[in-house]
Amino acid sequence: MEKEPNHKKVSVGLDMYFNHSVAEKFAELEQNEKNFRVAEIVDDVIMSEIKDMKNPIFSAELGGGAHPDRYDKLFEQLLSEPRGHMDWVDVAPYMLELAKKYIDNEKYKERLNVIKFVENGILEYLEKLPAEKLDLAIMKYTVDHIADLDRLFALMSQKLKTGGKLVASLGVLDPQLKSISTNARFLYNGQEFPEDTVKMLKDGDSFTVKFFNVSGDPKAGYLKGAETVKYYHSEEKLRELAKKYNLDISVGDWKEMLEKRGGIDQLILVLRKTV
Ligand SMILES: C[S@@+](CC[C@H](N)C(=O)[O-])C[C@H]1O[C@@H](n2cnc3c(N)ncnc32)[C@H](O)[C@@H]1O
User: Could you identify the atom of ligand 1 that is nearest to the CA of residue 92?
Assistant: First the structure.
């Protein structure tokens, strides 16, 4: 596994992913229906975006976390000849250990033939990549971990091949920060606020996410130590940066993107390098 020594800088607000017992419980909490469904949606958007690409496909999961036991369709394509590749990038070493554990079984272990685990920050990994290396970058629940969104877009414009894509799921676009979601409570400037109120976020604002012990059950209390800092990025900002770096952009609900009628709501961002 590749390793980089710059964790301190990247890991601000990510302590929970560096704590073994918290990371393990968090990864287990992610074994819920909604999480699987979102991964399937991302997988479907990816397949639609790469349908004209030829094998082998070079891909990277940026902030991959514990679950390479997702993306069945993409892995099927990466495993078909000539075989593709996926860099599974995460700054937290234990998340990478968990990722290996979740595919250490008959059903998934073939994926080890195409995955390389890379312990590094997202921006730091991209900086090191040769220009025009990536056919596909994936960010699931991680765009809002990035404070310097301008740098992310600049790197995408350099490191995607012409024709390359970034497919990301987005948490929120609405500037109204809710107090509570299925999995977590949100804090504004480090403070809890009542369930029936919202806070207005501005671009680049940070907020804290505190995860519940049991998904969907706030009364079961918080998962000890499981809190993380995220950053708000508006749709206007995403569009402005796409324009600045000459990237084609789609942002919105996956159903509109794939022309589907039913299903859960999930915001997706696609960036395409067309020139
Ligand atoms: C919310 S989890 C999402 C994991 C995975 N993408 C998923 O959907 O299950 C965030 C993960 O991204 C990693 N992460 C967050 N910010 C990062 C950064 N700047 N560089 C590398 N990894 C990061 C964390 O260590 C953690 O494993």
Answer: 25
Q: What is the number of other CB atoms lying within 10 angstroms of the CB of residue 90? A: 26
Q: To test the ligand 1 pocket, which listed residue (145, 208, 231) has its Cβ within 8 A of the most ligand atoms?
A: 145
User: DSSP 3-state assignment of 3?
Assistant: strand
CATH of the domain at 34: 3.40.50.150
Task: For tokens 């749709």, name the residue.
Answer: 235
Does residue 118 sit in the same domain as residue 206? Answer: no
Segment 89-116, tens digit of pLDDT: 999 999 999 999 999 999 999 999 999 9
Do residues 267 and 150 both lie within one domain?
Answer: yes
> Domain range holding 188?
176-229
Residues having CB within 6 Å of any atom of ligand 1: 10, 14, 17, 30, 63-65, 67, 90-92, 95, 121-122, 140-142, 145
Distance CA 141, CA 65 (A): 10
Query: Do 84 and 136 reside in the same domain of the chain?
Result: yes
- Digit-coded pLDDT (tens) for 196-230: 899 999 999 999 999 998 888 889 999 888 899 99
* Distance separating alpha carbons of residues 188 and 13, to the nearest angstrom: 14
pTM above 0.85, yes or no: yes
| Domain co-membership, 121 together with 225 | no
Q: Please give the angle made by the CA atoms of 19, 113 and 7, to the nearest 5 degrees.
A: 30
Spatial CA neighbour of 140 closest among 37, 6, 236, 274: 37
Identify which of 25, 90, 126, 152 to mutate to test ligand 1's pocket (most ligand atoms within 8 A of the CB).
Answer: 90
